[in-house]
Design brief:
CATH topology of the largest domain: Nucleoside Triphosphate Pyrophosphohydrolase
Number of strands: 11
Number of domains: 2
Structural class: alpha+beta
Strand content: 35-45%
Helix content: 10-25%
């Protein structure tokens, strides 16, 4: 099987949130696709954060595109030259005030939507977390921290109280390590 060939590429726009690129591509059989749009986004990190008391640390925040509030695991994108591991430790501390003396456990790196997006999400598990700091939020962040009993997560997912895909997938990826 052969890959597609990029014949031409230009940016429709660039923003701090991501870029939209327009490509002309040649398929392996010679067909040409004009105006194939690619969303360029930075990779991001997220983590299931579990306290010693078996509570999962979640954040509740408004998500503009969906026009609703969501319960999610802490997440964010690495800053310049920051490792994924350092990024998730920083994001968890900033968003929730929680830290751990244990190293984050990498659960996996997964492309978000490889058909049209360039980024991946890198998911971690952080165990034995405890509250040590106040939140340090960006000017555009308004986040409430919620502690949810580990035993309540699946019911909350089934009842659509937690309906953000990356939170759900991270929970199920971590499940075998939480028992």
């Amino acid at each position: 099987m052969n890959s597609w060939k990029m014949l031409n590429s230009s940016y429709v726009f660039k923003t701090p949130f991501g870029n939209l690129r327009k490509d002309d591509c040649e398929l392996p059989d010679g067909q040409i696709i004009k105006n194939y749009y690619v969303n360029e986004y930075a990779d991001w990190v997220n983590a299931i954060v579990l306290t010693k008391e078996k509570k999962i640390v979640l954040v509740k925040q408004f998500r503009y595109a969906a026009q609703d509030f969501f319960l999610e695991i802490p997440a964010g994108k690495p800053e310049e030259n920051e490792t994924y591991e350092n990024a998730i430790v920083r994001e968890v501390r900033e968003e929730t005030g929680f830290i751990s003396e244990k190293e984050p456990i990498l659960l996996g790196e997964f492309y978000v939507n490889p058909a049209t997006q360039t980024n991946k999400v890198v998911t971690f598990l952080i165990l034995d977390a405890f509250k040590a700091f106040d939140q340090v939020l960006d000017p555009t962040e308004f986040i409430d921290v919620r502690l949810v009993d580990l035993n309540d997560m699946e019911t909350m997912i089934e009842n659509q109280e937690i309906n953000q895909l990356f939170t759900v997938s991270a929970y199920y990826m971590s499940k075998s390590r939480l028992t």
